[in-house]
Amino acid sequence: VQLQASGGGLVQAGGSLSLSCTAPGYAFSNYGIGWFRQAPGKEREFVAGINWSGDNTYYGDSDFVKGRFTISRDNAKNTVLLQMSSLKPEDTAVYYCAATLACSGYGCYADWGYEHWGQGTQVTVSS
């Protein structure tokens, strides 16, 4: 599965961005999708995930994520969205989407639980 993450850019603190994850030419409705981010010099961090049907969403423990990010999917459009609001400079990172057929438990929150990865999209939040 070739994933494409898009929608990143430069935004001022307090602003919003919506990231998209697609798989051109491939229906990924059977896959759970996760968003991760990696800031310079830091480890990759789980941001949000959604199961194949969209009826189960889960978020990273980071206080930076809770209440500000929302993950959703539209399988008819073969798209998973990560809507980000009240962005902070600390949210600056490369954001990746990843797909999993069968993550379970903690694996759904960890990069090793995902089999396929996109190339990432840069999000930069200026202060």
Can you describe this structure in just a few lines?
By secondary structure, the chain is an all-beta fold. It has no helices and 11 strands. It is 0% helix and 45% strand.
Question: Which terms summarize this structure?
Answer:
single chain, 127 residues, mainly beta, 7-stranded mixed beta sheet, 4-stranded antiparallel beta sheet, 11 strands, 45% strand, globular
Give the secondary structure arrangement, pairings included:
Layout: E1 4-6, E2 9-12, E3 17-22, E4 32-38, E5 45-50, E6 57-59, E7 69-74, E8 79-84, E9 93-100, E10 116-117, E11 121-126
Task: Please give a structural write-up.
The chain has 127 residues and is an all-beta fold. 0% of the residues lie in helices and 45% in strands. It contains no helices and eleven strands. It has strands at 4-6, 9-12, 17-22, 32-38, 45-50, 57-59, 69-74, 79-84, 93-100, 116-117, 121-126.
Kindly state the mean pLDDT as a whole number? 93
- Tally the helices: what do you get? 0
The low-confidence parts are none
Question: Can you write the helix and strand succession as a string?
Answer: EEEEEEEEEEE
What percent of the residues sit in helical stretches (DSSP H or I)? under 10%
Helix/strand class = mainly beta
How can the largest sheet be summarized?
7 strands, mixed
* Gyration radius, rounded: 13 Å
Overall outline: globular
Distance from first to last alpha carbon: 36 Å
Count of extended strands: 11
Give the strand content: 35-45%
